[in-house]
Amino acid sequence: MMMASSISSISVFDKTWCQAENIEQFRREDLSRRNGLNYYVLYQDENGSVLIEQTVTNETDPKWIQKAIDMGLIFMKKVDHEITLASWKARDAK
Predict the structure, then answer these.
(1) What global pTM score does this model have?
(2) How many whole angstroms separate alpha carbon 60 and alpha carbon 39?
(3) Any alpha helices (H) in 5-93, and if so which ranges?
(4) Among 92, 80, 79, 72, which Cα is nearest to 56's?
(5) Cα(28)–Cα(62) distance, rounded to whole angstroms?
């Protein structure tokens, strides 16, 4: 499978999914990883596009996630996106 740099061919996006905006969404207030947080990686091949569920663990490579975010390949469920985004912005406002 090859990763796509575009989401234009995805038809499943209703209002359930949001693109991750920053690696900080994957970090808690103390900057540790949000272990257990589910996120979805966009893959595309000749049969179309699919979101593959992943879970943040201690082995999750933050450099890889940041690169994938920059490429527009990391998605979150809308509720998780809103919670992590608000948490990140509140932490940075301190």
Answers:
(1) 0.77
(2) 11
(3) 62-70, 78-93
(4) 80
(5) 13
Residue type, 5: S
Confidence of residue 16 (pLDDT cuts 50, 70, 90): confident
Q: Which amino acid is residue 6, in one-letter code? A: S
Contact 62, 23 (CB under 8 A): yes
Tell me if residue 51 falls in helix, strand or coil.
strand
**How far is 10 from 16, CA to CA, in rounded Å?**
13
At 14, the pLDDT band (50, 70, 90 cuts) reads low
Contact 23, 64 (CB under 8 A): no
As beta bridge partners, residue 51 has 42
